[in-house]
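Wed. Picked up where I left off yesterday with Cbb3-type cytochrome oxidase maturation protein. The coffee machine is broken again, so keeping this brief.
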Amino acid sequence: MDILYLIIPLSVLLVLAVVAALWWAVHSGQFENMEPEGERILHDS
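Structure written out below (tokens, as returned):
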């Protein structure tokens, strides 16, 4: 039962870290204009 007092806060912190990283990626433009990257491998360099 004592381990739950460690695991639950750590899992909440992990979820908050993942949400913060996703929020940063979305708002910093990491997912903008993804179509050229998908087409880039189809063209010869």
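Quick read: The chain has a mean pLDDT of 88.
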